[in-house]
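User: I'll paste a sequence; please echo it back and then give the predicted structure.

Assistant: Echoing your sequence first, then the prediction.
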Amino acid sequence: MEFSTTELVSRLAKLFAANIRYEMSGMVGKVRPITRDPADIGQLDCSGFVEYVIYHTTTNRHDIPAGSRRQWSWFRDNGYAEVDYPTFAPRNDDVVRIGFRAAEHGRNDEGERVRTKAGHVWLVINGSTYESTTRGRNNGVSSLNWDARTDQADAFYTLGSASGFMILRYLSKHLMPAQFLS
């Protein structure tokens, strides 16, 4: 998977600047049509965020499925390299990686199997997560330090390079934010 670093930095900056809240309920947290501008998105769940970012920032506009479980299967079944989270998540190597937490299940009072905790998916670049979550300072698009997800990473895959991400991200945040947000 190839990323356009300029588009990745720009799209992330726009998503962070937009007033997007985390919402998980069927298709409510998905962007339809996926071509919408970040300013027109009101809510995203974790897999909707990942689907949107990958579609808009990969050079061939990869259209991955919706839903963290389906996304996990898609990356596993399409030959992406699974790597160790604590070893690769903190690396400052301008590589985009994706983490998955499996859903947890239990039994209700009637003995039926029920989901007790939803699955989750997030991107990791240079030691930071990029995700839509209720965790952290925001209820929505957020970035956490990689180790906030260490105990949750049931699978972790290398997606591809985003050469120059670190410097472009720095420039977008500190020197030229208006250029990246326009």
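Residues 177-182 have pLDDT under 50 and may be disordered. The first strand starts at residue 21 and ends at 22.
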